[in-house]
């Protein structure tokens, strides 16, 4: 997905203007996506790029996706803490 939206798998290599345009496209695609798996995948990309809405807002009407997103964030936090040790 990163390659699809950014043209590369390395977000740090993307110029700021192109990154902002990609963020807008991702946010729009997230907003209109109906398939739960794709919606969740888009949300994880948004999280990786630092602009994902909190799970309660992102998946307000989809409790299973909200729970999955919360578990994802918990796991990511644990991994980050382990890396800092």
Descriptive account of the structure:
The protein is an all-alpha fold. It has helices at about 1-5, 15-30, 35-50, 55-60, 65-85. The radius of gyration is 14 Å and the shape is flat.
**Helical amount:** over 70%
What's the rounded overall pLDDT mean? 95
Q: Stretches where pLDDT falls below 50 for ≥5 residues?
A: none
Strand fraction equals under 5%
Tally of strands: 0
Radius of gyration: 14 Å
Distance between the termini: 30 Å
- Major sheet attributes: none
Describe the global form: flat
SSE pattern: HHHHH
Summarize this structure as a short list of keywords or feature phrases.
single chain; 85 residues; mainly alpha; 5 helices
List the helices and strands and how they pair.
Blueprint: H1 2-6, H2 16-32, H3 36-48, H4 55-58, H5 63-84
Helix pairs in contact: 2-3
In short:
By secondary structure, the chain is mostly helical.
